[in-house]
Design brief:
It is a single chain. The chain has helices spanning 7-29, 33-38, 43-61, 68-71. The protein contains 4 helices and no strands. The model has no long low-confidence stretch (mean pLDDT 90).
Length: 74
């Protein structure tokens, strides 16, 4: 799915995957990897959470609108 995507869409997909893996680790193992690696409540972890949220919104929008970068022949 992401093999034929533009660079921006690949980054958005990768960030969303990282967020999904973090949520999976919270649900299964009760371990928040972002907080473990970056410190709970740190500014960097808040930025990571914001990027994951924005990536999720970007993926949601991609269900309805085709990315102009992905529309161009590569």
């Amino acid at each position: 799915m992401l093999k034929q995507a533009c660079f921006i869409c690949k980054i958005v997909g990768l960030i969303a995957i990282i967020g999904a893996l973090n949520w999976g680790s919270i649900g299964i193992f009760q371990v928040n990897l972002v907080d473990q690696l970056l410190g709970a409540g740190s500014t960097i972890s808040r930025v990571i959470y914001a990027l994951v949220g924005l990536s999720g919104l970007g993926l949601l929008v991609s269900f309805f609108v085709v990315c102009p970068g992905c529309k161009k022949p590569q």
